[in-house]
Design brief:
Strand content: under 5%
Structural class: mainly alpha
Radius of gyration: 17 Å
Number of helices: 4
Oligomer: single chain
């Protein structure tokens, strides 16, 4: 595995830990934390895209490729799911003329993507450590 791919993966893991830490400390009094959280989530998604690109570009193979792509796609799909949730809720509310809340994309962003992200991180780290110990 190339060094650039490893650095992007590690940055993604550190940034995701930082985002989780900020979410637990987020209060309405501190608008800068919300702004910082938004910027961090965008950076997390960009790093996820870079991780997927580097994984495909450097011809990583086997299970490591699957875990790295899963780790890279999870933050991107989370943002897409949140946007789709808001758009569909707004459209259905305006069409039906009553309050309507779409739940599928919301649950996917809330439970599916973080689970895929954690599985990807744990699987990638396990294979990277196993490969480094054997080599």
């Amino acid at each position: 595995m190339r060094l650039s791919l490893l650095w992007v993966f590690l940055l993604l893991v550190v940034l995701s830990a930082k985002v989780v830490f900020i979410v637990f400390q987020l209060t309405k009094k501190h608008l800068w934390r919300f702004t910082y959280l938004t910027i961090s989530i965008c950076a997390l998604s960009i790093l996820g895209g870079v991780l997927v690109f580097l994984t495909l570009w450097q011809n990583v193979s086997g299970l490591l490729k699957i875990f790295l792509i899963m780790t890279g796609f999870a933050p991107v799909v989370t943002i897409i799911s949140v946007i789709l949730h808001n758009i569909i809720s707004a459209l259905l509310t305006s069409i039906l003329r009553r309050e309507f809340e779409e739940i599928v994309f919301f649950l996917f962003a809330l439970f599916g993507c973080p689970t895929a992200f954690l599985i990807g991180i744990i699987g990638s780290l396990t294979l990277i450590i196993k490969h480094t110990i054997i080599s």
